[in-house]
Amino acid sequence: MAHTILLVQPGPKPETRTFSDYESVNECMEAGVCKIYEEHLKRMNPNTPSITYDISQLFDFIDQLADLSCLVYQKSTNTYAPYNKDWIKEKIYILLRRQAAK
User: What's the rounded Cα separation, in Å, for the pair 51 and 34?
Assistant: First the structure.
């Protein structure tokens, strides 16, 4: 349960930068990154009542963002450690694989 800050820059302009914070890495991946992609899909397909996607589509979306990173609180040092897109994709993969196994 490490406090996590999600930093997102969807476009090339710095003005598109936003951040949000979560109580854990998993919450950040699910309620943050996956939700951003799902909202994107809803905007792109407003007349589709039910939208499905696979992990490769989600990863392509992550790759096309100008910037996406996380700052995760490290209790031992009382600091935040930065993590990049590859780390985020790995965490999402683990999270979704666990959900699929249930």
Answer: 13
Cα angle 39, 41, 43; round to 5: 70
Rounded CA gap, 53 and 69, in Å? Answer: 22
Give 9's DSSP letter. E
Rounded Cα distance between 90 and 55, Å, is 11
Within 8 A by CB and 6+ apart from 56, the residues are none
Place of tokens 């309620």: 31
Helix 55-64 with 85-101: angle, nearest 10 deg:
160
Which two tokens mark 30? 């699910």
Is residue 67 within 8 Å of 14, Cβ to Cβ? no
pLDDT in tens, 57-97: 999 999 999 999 999 999 999 999 999 999 999 999 999 99
Give 75's contacts (C-beta < 8 A, 6+ positions apart): 2
